[in-house]
């Protein structure tokens, strides 16, 4: 039974690894974007200082032209800053969506794994009530849900019905089969009949 859950566990570990990698990438990108935003804010606040794209005004230019140039440069830098902020928000939203999806998938897999564990525990309890596990060879078809299985005591006629030839046996109907046991504790059916 553990072989059935090995792929699920492997997939769960892969999802956890992917989540950690995506978180690391998101943190790296966040740090880069924040550095770029700080640099752009620095350029916006002091557009003439430390800006490699601007030429220094010459002494012959007028003050009015210089102020207009400064305003245009500041406006362009603010626009570039806004574009970078929008890109950053978009990337951040995409990463958050991916992390949420992976987190949901991991939660679903954990729930499924817990359900499977509960089923295994249930089947172990069934096996313990029927006898030792060493004497039983079961397949997955033998382990049905209780709702697919009916059990009852029945009277079966023997060869000589006229002389009171009725035999009491334990009957189980499961997976289109009628199984008759001599007692409830028997592990092998005395009679097995296919029921269509």
TrEMBL record:
Record's keyword terms, sorted: Coiled coil
Family annotation (Gene3D superfamilies): Pleckstrin-homology domain (PH domain)/Phosphotyrosine-binding domain (PTB)
Residue segments, region Disordered: 41-71
Highest taxon listed in the record's lineage: Eukaryota
InterPro entries to which the protein is assigned, alphabetical: PH-like_dom_sf
Segments crossing the lipid bilayer: none
Coiled-coil residue windows: 74-126
Chain intervals with Basic and acidic residues compositional bias: 62-71
Keyword Oxidoreductase: no
Signal sequence bounds: none
Keyword Coiled coil: yes
Ranges of biased composition (kind: Polar residues): 43-60
Name under which the protein is recorded: PH domain-containing protein
Species this protein is from: Rotaria socialis
Source species taxonomy: Eukaryota, Metazoa, Spiralia, Gnathifera, Rotifera
């Amino acid at each position: 039974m553990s072989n059935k859950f090995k792929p699920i566990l492997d997939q769960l570990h892969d999802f956890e690894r992917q989540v950690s990698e995506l978180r690391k990438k998101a943190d790296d990108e966040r740090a880069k974007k924040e550095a770029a935003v700080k640099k752009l804010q620095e350029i916006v606040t002091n557009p003439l200082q430390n800006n490699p794209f601007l030429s220094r005004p010459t002494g012959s230019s007028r003050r009015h032209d210089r102020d207009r140039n400064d305003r245009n440069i500041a406006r362009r830098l603010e626009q570039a800053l806004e574009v970078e902020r929008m890109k950053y928000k978009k990337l951040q939203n995409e990463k958050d969506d991916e992390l949420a999806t992976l987190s949901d998938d991991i939660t679903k897999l954990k729930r499924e794994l817990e359900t499977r564990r509960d089923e295994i525990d249930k089947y172990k309890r069934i096996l313990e009530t029927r006898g030792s596990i060493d004497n039983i060879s079961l397949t997955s078809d033998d382990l049905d849900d209780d709702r697919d299985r009916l059990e009852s005591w029945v009277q079966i006629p023997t060869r000589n019905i006229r002389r009171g030839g009725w035999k009491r046996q334990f009957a189980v109907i499961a997976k289109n089969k009628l199984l008759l046991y001599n007692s409830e504790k028997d592990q092998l059916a005395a009679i097995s009949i296919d029921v269509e």
